[in-house]
Amino acid sequence: MKAARLRLIVAATLFVGWLFYLGYLALGHGKAVVVSRSQLLQTVSAVKAEVTLNSAGKPNSRVEIRETIAGSPLDAGEIEIENMGEAKLPGGKPLQVGGTFVLLLENSRVGKFRIAAPSTGQGPDSSSKLFLVYPWSQEVDGQVRKQLAPP
Fold it and tell me: Which strand (E) or helix (H) includes residue 142?
């Protein structure tokens, strides 16, 4: 009877230890950013851009293009983005810090751009009002390049 009890205690200890180890692994990894496929489908040009904030803490409509990642090439330099003030981070969080971001753009007027909105699938011109921008990382860059690569 003592051997059975000892085996039970050892097995229970190993099981609890395994659960703690899995919890440690799960908490040790940050949340991965997933680029919206429906937003990519609306995109004409994906760019890596430097975004700054105005005195009110909102993103400036003028951004500095660093690189065209995919789609129609844009020259490096400043461009105006009409809906930049409405930009949100993945998860719907407001954009409250400047930095380098991946912007998925669509044409709005001649020489003007807007952040592409993901389609909701509810018929023509049924894009959502969630204009997502993604903090630049190798992972986000790779997702965009892979999804928008020519066939």
Answer: helix 138-148
Polymer length of the chain = 151
Instruction: With H, G, I as helix, E, B as strand and everything else as coil, classify residue 10.
Output: helix
Query: For 74-115, how does the pLDDT look when each residue is reduced to its tens digit (9 = 90+)?
Result: 888 888 888 888 888 888 888 888 889 999 998 877 778 888
Nearest to 39 by CA among 143, 127, 146, 135: 127
Burial class (CB in 10 A: 0-12, 13-18, 19+), 1: exposed
Measured CA distances, 64 to 46, 47, 82, 95 (Å)? 13, 10, 14, 16
Which architecture characterizes domain 37-148 according to CATH? Answer: Beta Barrel (2.40)
What are 43-53's pLDDT values in tens digits? 888 899 999 98
